Amino acid sequence: MGWVTADGRHKGYLAPMFGDGQRGRGVTAASVPPDEVVVGDEVQREDGSWTWPTRPAGEATGWVVCCDCYRNTSLGPASSWVGPVFTRVPSKTLENLTARRIFAATTTSPTSPTARTYTTRPWGCGAPSTPTAPTPSPR
Asked: I need a labelling partner for 25 at 20 to 30 A (CA). Which of 1, 16, 58, 95 fits?
């Protein structure tokens, strides 16, 4: 789940963070259970099948807003930006978005629409304040 600017040059997403500093990939795959988080590239097993390295979603200690920023190329992102950490709190009453504290039970990302809206505010990479809105044309 992510956000893309109208011009396709900014692709933002929430990525789970873990206590040891590892960051989830912010992607899902049909072969990954919903209570797991992808944390690396797909790898081939000895039997020839493919799998994704994962960690339990419940171990996520927070989330960061990330953006892959593209130029007019299909060769991959020209740069990536990672925002500040939003810390996971154990109850809805402790959630404070201004203080970057978000409640989530055992899901891979916060489900509160307010939390998602807040984390899409201005990004440090220069993406528009509302990533899904059309980019204004220069005058």
From this structure: 95
Are 40 and 19 in contact, with CB atoms under 8 Å apart? no
Residues 104 and 16: their CA atoms lie apart, in Å, by 11
Residue 92 covered by a domain? yes
> How many structural domains comprise the chain?
1
Residue 9 pLDDT exceeds 80: no
* pLDDT of the residue at 91: 86
Q: What is the pTM of this model?
A: 0.70
DSSP one-letter code for 135: P
Q: What is the mean pLDDT of residues 3-22?
A: 81
Q: How far is CA 68 from CA 8, 13, 18, 76, in A?
A: 10, 9, 20, 9
Domain membership flag for residue 71 = yes
What HEC string does 73-134 produce? Answer: CCCCCCEEEEEEEEEEECCHHHCECCCCEEECCCCCCCCCHHHHHHHCCCCCCCCCCCCCCC
Contact 70, 10 (CB under 8 A): yes
Can you tell me the mean pLDDT for 21-36? Answer: 83
